[in-house]
């Protein structure tokens, strides 16, 4: 096909799924459908031709600014559409200091006050709103699945780009929507993505987990591999993961530019969802379950792209540059710009200049100043348990500032009930209150200027964690190991006693 | 959403780096780079806080970096950015497109965009033109040779022209083009489907009632 045909669609993708008209794809697919197609079509309010539709929104998730957005509309005499499908949680701007409840000015904006002030009014409309005083509060992408506000089969939208996390329970979810449109109309207008399946094969080595799977995938396929694609993660390795591991994988879908990421629901999903606070019960549960069982991709469904990632012999991953695709195994050496494809050499040069690494050096043993464990990528109870297993009986290296931030109040309470907080604090970690924190710094939690941070979050962009701060993305146990050693190390070697 | 427009003219700024991230356009972190300054060279009617590309426009102490192309005349008054492939990759709640508008940019011309940023441009009113790389380079070369000459993007004709070089055609999804020409926001488009949306809701509520029960039933 000619390039003009692609340009006509208005799709701005570099690679990914950007080059073939949608119509030909649908014709090939016949009646067999993917998970994404089924959920998309089940939410079509109106098909506008081409690849554009108006879709019904099952859940709109608002951040710190949520009560303010709603107040603004109400004051203007507007009506909120489908309020019982809207919920809000304070996460980006909340302080993570234990003093945030008493010294409320530590929280930025007016986030500490707006939630309690509007709580009753919102509840009367059917809108759930979780501020710092609420037992459900936490990072939105932890809270949604945890409370059962996110359910399989839903179309769930928000402003935040990591909304793709929720796809782990078998729904379609994306960020980048404006509160105003969704609150006024209960719908979104979007262009349909194409289906990309990533099949994981092989076996996971010790201390290799969901984070390593997705980082390795982004490294192998590229940070723009998912442009205009809806990614379905499949294969026995994904099936073997719990929902929390699947959330980590789906969370980083946006780091390869994908429109969304998801895993088809299965018994692991239903077990996870059952009895959550806002999940259906009794007859409604049976009805929902029957519907959900029809969602997984049909065997005969065609994918626009099918990629296979063999995880055998893949090591714990660590990023060396300023894009999540700048990633290598822990035993690997820092690459040289000349190793890159021609069009990426300039970017690699800039990346190395920023991170201050030397091509040919091992990434292991790079000294670190700070360690951050938290974020919507990996701050759930299974992540904290993995970190605690590494930390137990050890001490944070001198001169390393190390934080652990549970993803939500329920995760924090569970960790404390298991004594994990004591393991962290005894080792010298700070154990702080739930929020987005140093992953992004929009609450003022920043990596100190020019310092090097090993982080279990999802972005290592220039300045992401602070001015001139360098970020190395790793899994949670790898971050814990770096805190102990004071340098980037192989968690497998630390646990084998090969590293002091 | 800004008012609609059928054409726009202004100084272009060549910035052809590939893979510029959204966090580079709008540095995250409240207060991190909060210099709170306005651009003194913008006239008072358009003066707004300019926070795009802070990491290269300013030194950490808040002073201007004179080596940055964004601070050099005549580019500091540019309203059209000529960009490289994958401009605005990544995606998040950053106000990257809004920051660029705040700095006086009205349009970005690039071979490809990060999809989230592209959608943000459509939503905020920053005009994103997808143009083949050779044409972007041609425009950039002409700009470097005579940077003070204004570039004109004509939405009706779908062309980009300079006084010293003939019009280059570009293509755009007609729906998006109409949005910019009429200054429409998402809600202006979706509001037209409220009857269908209401009917959808009624059907869904009876077929999938569990979606409408997020009220914390007793366990």
What does this structure look like?
The complex is a heterodimer of chains A (500) and B (219). Chain A is an alpha/beta fold. Chain A contains 18 helices and 19 strands. Chain A has helices spanning 3-8, 22-29, 35-42, 66-75, 111-125, 140-147, 179-185, 210-221, 236-240, 243-251, 267-273, 282-292, 345-355, 381-391, 409-417, 420-427, 476-485, 491-495, and strands at 44-47, 52-56, 59-62, 86-89, 128-130, 155-158, 172-174, 187-191, 194-201, 229-234, 260-262, 305-310, 317-319, 327-329, 370-373, 401-405, 430-432, 452-455, 470-473. Chain A has a five-stranded parallel beta sheet, sandwiched between helices. In chain A, helix 4 (66-75) links the parallel strand 3 and strand 4 (86-89). Chain B has a single domain, classed as Aconitase, domain 4. Helix content of chain B is 30%, strand content 15%. Chain B has helices at 22-25, 54-57, 96-102, 115-124, 133-145, 174-182, 186-190, 194-207; strands at 7-10, 12-15, 80-83, 107-110, 127-130, 151-154, 159-162, 165-169. In chain B, the strands form two sheets. Chain B has a four-stranded antiparallel beta sheet, with helices on one face. Chain B has a four-stranded parallel beta sheet with strand order 2-3-4-5, sandwiched between helices. Mean pLDDT of chain B is 85; it is low at 30-48. Classes of the chains: A alpha/beta (500), B alpha/beta (219). At the A-B interface, helix 1, strand 2, helix 7, strand 8 and helix 12 of A face helix 1, helix 4, helix 7 and helix 8 of B.
């Amino acid at each position: 096909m000619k390039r003009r045909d692609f340009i006509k669609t208005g799709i701005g993708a570099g690679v990914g799924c950007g080059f073939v008209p949608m119509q030909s794809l649908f014709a090939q697919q016949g009646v067999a459908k993917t998970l994404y197609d089924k959920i998309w079509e089940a939410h079509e309010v109106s098909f506008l031709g081409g690849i554009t539709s108006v879709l019904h929104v099952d859940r709109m998730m608002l951040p710190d600014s949520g009560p303010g957005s709603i107040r603004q509309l109400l004051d203007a005499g507007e009506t909120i559409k489908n309020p019982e499908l809207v919920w809000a949680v304070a996460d980006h701007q909340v302080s993570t200091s234990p003093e945030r409840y008493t010294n409320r000015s530590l929280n930025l904006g007016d986030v500490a006050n707006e939630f309690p002030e509007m709580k009753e009014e919102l509840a009367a409309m059917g809108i759930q709103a979780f501020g710092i005083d609420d037992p459900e509060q936490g990072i939105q992408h932890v809270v949604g699945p945890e409370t059962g506000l996110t359910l399989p089969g839903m179309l769930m939208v928000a402003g935040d780009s990591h909304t793709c996390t929720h796809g782990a329970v078998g729904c379609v979810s994306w960020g980048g929507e404006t509160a105003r449109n969704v609150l006024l109309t209960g719908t979104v207008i979007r262009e349909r993505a194409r289906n990309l399946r990533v099949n994981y094969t092989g076996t996971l080595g010790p201390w290799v987990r969901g984070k390593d799977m997705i980082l390795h995938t982004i490294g192998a396929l590229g940070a723009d591999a998912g442009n205009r694609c809806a990614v379905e993660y499949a294969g026995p390795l994904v099936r073997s993961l719990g929902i929390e591991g699947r959330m980590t994988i789906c969370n980083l879908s946006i780091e390869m530019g994908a429109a969304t990421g998801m895993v088809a629901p299965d018994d692991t999903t239903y077990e996870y969802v059952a009895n959550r606070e806002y999940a259906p019960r009794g007859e409604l549960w049976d009805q929902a379950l029957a519907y959900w069982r029809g969602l997984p991709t049909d065997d005969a469904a065609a994918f626009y792209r099918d990629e296979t990632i063999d995880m055998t012999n893949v090591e714990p991953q660590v990023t060396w540059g300023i894009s999540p695709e700048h990633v290598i195994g822990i035993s690997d050496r820092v690459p040289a710009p000349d190793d890159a494809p021609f069009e990426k050499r300039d970017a690699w040069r800039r990346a190395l200049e920023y991170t201050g690494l030397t091509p040919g050096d091992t990434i292991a043993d790079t000294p670190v100043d700070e360690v951050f464990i938290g974020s919507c990528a990996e701050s759930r109870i299974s992540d904290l348990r993995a970190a605690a297993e590494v930390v137990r009986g050890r001490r944070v290296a001198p001169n390393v500032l190390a934080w652990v931030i549970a993803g939500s109040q329920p995760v924090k309470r569970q960790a404390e009930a298991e004594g994990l907080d004591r393991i962290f604090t005894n080792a010298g970690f700070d154990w702080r209150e739930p929020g987005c924190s140093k992953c992004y710094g929009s609450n003022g939690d920043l990596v100190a200027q020019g310092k090097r941070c090993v982080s279990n979050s999802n972005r290592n962009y220039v300045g992401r964690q602070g001015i001139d701060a360098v970020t190395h993305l790793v899994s949670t146990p790898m971050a814990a190991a770096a805190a102990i050693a004071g340098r980037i190390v192989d968690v497998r070697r630390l646990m084998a006693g090969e590293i002091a | 959403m800004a008012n609609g427009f059928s054409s726009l003219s202004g100084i272009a700024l060549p910035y052809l780096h590939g893979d510029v991230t959204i966090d580079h356009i709008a540095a995250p972190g409240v207060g991190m780079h909060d210099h709170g300054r306005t651009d003194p060279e913008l006239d008072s009617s358009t003066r707004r806080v300019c926070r795009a590309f802070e990491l290269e426009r300013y030194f950490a102490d808040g002073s201007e970096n004179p080596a940055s192309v964004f601070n050099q005349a005549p580019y500091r008054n540019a309203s059209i950015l000529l960009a490289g492939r994958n401009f605005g990759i990544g995606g998040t709640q950053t106000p990257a497109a809004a920051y660029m508008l705040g700095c006086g940019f009205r349009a970005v011309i690039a071979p490809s965009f990060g999809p989230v940023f592209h959608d943000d441009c459509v939503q905020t009113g920053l005009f994103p033109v997808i143009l083949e790389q050779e044409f972007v380079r041609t425009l950039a070369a002409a700009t470097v040779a005579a940077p003070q000459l204004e570039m004109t993007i004509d939405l009706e004709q779908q062309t980009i022209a300079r006084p010293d070089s003939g019009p280059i055609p570009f293509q755009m999804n007609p729906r998006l083009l109409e949005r910019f020409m009429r200054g429409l926001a998402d809600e202006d488009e979706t509001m037209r489907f409220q009857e269908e949306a209401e009917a959808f809701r009624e059907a869904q509520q009876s077929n999938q009632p569990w979606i409408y029960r997020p009220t914390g039933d007793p366990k």
